[in-house]
Amino acid sequence: MKTETISERYSELDKWTTRAAVEAMWEGQLAAVASVHSEIAAIAEAADAAAERLLSGGRLIYAGAGTSGRLAVQDGVELGPTFGWPSERLGYAIAGGMNALSKSAELAEDDPNAARADLSTLNVQPKDVVLGVAASGRTPYTVAVLDIATTTGALTIGISNNRPSEVLDSASIGICAETGAEIVAGSTRMKAGTAQKVILNLFSTATMIRCGHVYKGLMVDMVISNEKLRRRAETMIARLTETSPADAAFALDAAGGDIKTGVLCALGASASDAKDLLAQTHGVLRDAITQLAVNTETLSEAHDRRIS
Fold it and tell me: Is 78 among the residues known to form the active site?
């Protein structure tokens, strides 16, 4: 595995000045980000395929061990506050359980039986999306998760930093950022971890865009959990509807704090009609706004006919 290779260039790293070592690590981080570029098409393919399953009611399930597992969970837990993704439609299969997020459980990654038990508990369905992350590409726990999930008919996505790898072979769609040897040999929390984080960011954000949680570059399903986010939501509504801050605040209140509903209210819909429009358009705000305009025009035409 290239990620485990010992580089002669850094064999005397502990004798370097701290500045020189930090600069070398920084260069490694840049190289890690650059390694993702060749996988853009695969990331986009994975996001489109995932969105199709998720729009049909599926769940997004993250799997991994060690650093990879922690990065996977970090990506998942941020989908709720950022995009309003419901927690009941998220799942995690982490070697050693969720306790492994704060305490190392290295032996757990070698246990495929634990993967079978975890997936049984999750009850993976064909409409689900299972994403497995492993720098080595051969972690037994993660490979088993992908193998089992694939047999259920779920969409499986594998992320690795080595090619060829079992993680890539086991997944419906494979994404591989070949980051090569680490500056500190074998420390895949460095270059490999950075590349994984970038891939996860790109994948999940693109998937949420395709699922309708972003409109005109704004997080219109953001959860309003404090005053800062309340002000941000009001600003979004004012900007999207070209209304005053006061009107935007009134619309947000009428919508019960839901930004998408608030946008439609600011455009003239009642809260009830706004919710109906969003239900009809599967929560896609752009489509709901278009339908509201059609409905408004139809009502106007009907009114004109009556008075003529």
Answer: yes
